[in-house]
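Record filed below.
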Amino acid sequence: MRSTRRGKINVNLISFASILVIVAWVLLFISNAPGEDKEKEKYKKGELIIKFKPDVPEDIKDKIHIKYDSKKIKIYSSFNIDYVKLKDTLGVEDAIALYLENPEVEFAEPNFHFSVVTSPNDPYFNHLWGFNNSGQTGGTPGADIDILQAWSMTTGNSNIAVAIIDTGIDYNHPDLSENIWVNLAESSGTTGVDDDGNGYIDDIYGIDTYGNDTNPMDDHGHGTHVAGTVGAIGNNAMGVPGVNWQIKLIPCKFLNWDGYGYTDGALECLEYVRALKERGVNIVATNNSWGGDSYSQALHDAIDMQRSSGILFIAAAGNDNANNDEWNFYPASYNLPNVLSVAAVDPNDSKAWFSNFGRRTVHVGAPGVNIVSLRANGTDMYGDGQHFIPQGDPNAEYYVASGTSMAAPHVTGLVGLIKSKNPAKTWIDVKNLIISGSENMDFYGLSIAGRINTFRSLTCNQSPVFSVLEFPDSFQAGMSTVLSALSINCEAPVGPVTVTSSSGEVVYLYDNGTSPDLVANDGIFSASWIPENEFSYLTFSSPAGTETVPNPSILTASLPAGLVNDSYSQVLQVSNGVPPYVWYIHSGSLPEGLSLNETTGVIFGIPSTTGVWSFLVKVVDSKNSFDMRAFSMTIGEIDLIVTR
């Protein structure tokens, strides 16, 4: 049973005083070129790429080309593809339809146009290490969400909307105003009249449930910063771009000028958003960069109702450096299929020191340290005057902030990109693509997947993810328990999923929407089980992967300091899992002169140099389950005592 902590709903922010160092860079790659002054043709007229099915003879291919008066330009024999010139009177679309009438043809497509693209012309783009990490902040090059590659496919769509449930949005911000949703019935209606009959008078841009009015202007700054990451206008020679260059942002303000709000306000926002979706506004997600420790059944049910409208609920995991598998942080900890919980990572692809985590309850990580985005007019979230961009400018329109609050909107933005490229994808598809497209790294093991990667999610192919979600706290015969696991490959569920106990019992898990399974075909497989025999571990398996639980758990919390040229020995303690164990230094390094015994978990030796070393220890049990823990060790000088 997970315990709880804290009390009020509060904005998730962690203060960082450092400002990013700007390093100029240029990245070129083959892609559609967004933002060019002259829009080019999407494909070359009069040409076609045709792939034939295996073992189709060359003479049959030639007869098909002759039938349509097509001329072969080139043959790509290893791909079984012909590149042809069409007759002048045959258009590309018509030619595709004709070729596909032949059972020998696997596919026919245009000869698409591509070109080079550089980064957008927004002047602060190079601040955004999370979008493209060239090491400009001292981090690891490539530890980013690959946004440039994603933008070669889509930069968003103004027909897609997301709701920012937060402190409001500065809807007049010049780098955001064009992407703010406008309620046309009210904006073109009569002032002081509820023109659209939804119970709110003049809700032109959204509503303020804290102030009980229809002016969701941001007087704190948090909501505007979040909104900028989701959808600041891109390639407009101003400030920063958002993950989406075009999108519609709907502000619902339920947090006040001090960053606090209450359940009733959140409920009203969710109800307002759901009503808009039912009216035809294409809302695909809500961003929820807030939370607290109190469980609300009403909030749980309101979030659950969003999935019937096809709305994902993106939630910040919290900033207490706590394990959400053990300590609840709501709404991120609600066990609901449409919730995506987001942790924060730093420029080195490691968990941000403040970020909550959870191997079973936090889905992905996203950039959340020193994130530059938009500043609401007249606000200073940290109240220290040090986070303005440019630094020290009280009229600055941009701001640097850190927290899982800043990580979540990267994921919300990715929802928009996926729906922009693939409008037919369901909320289940989108959620699974975000998880499957993530990159595994040092952060893996602290969430279900890794750090998001926009390009991998947009182009997902053969990227299975398997993770145990629920299993019993105690392994006793006769006690009813629920077993569940996530088993997906890109957006698709992957089964069958089985669980085998160490005593030999086999349980089948199902993704059919029948209790305890919550939703059919979402890739989460579940079953109720009453074990007949005592057991010590469970092995979950599917074509997507295998995992044995309970995982080993490193118990040692910290390491004592050592002295240079003095013998050092410290045993790393581990529990659970199935022995024997193997120990590794997963990343970083031990102090010079020290070693880790792979069998015993003992760090030993004689340190030869003073300093501070940081490293990540990994322990793997006999079932290939593992745990990781970050450590820091100081080696100091030996004090000399002189006697006379």
The radius of gyration is 27 Å.
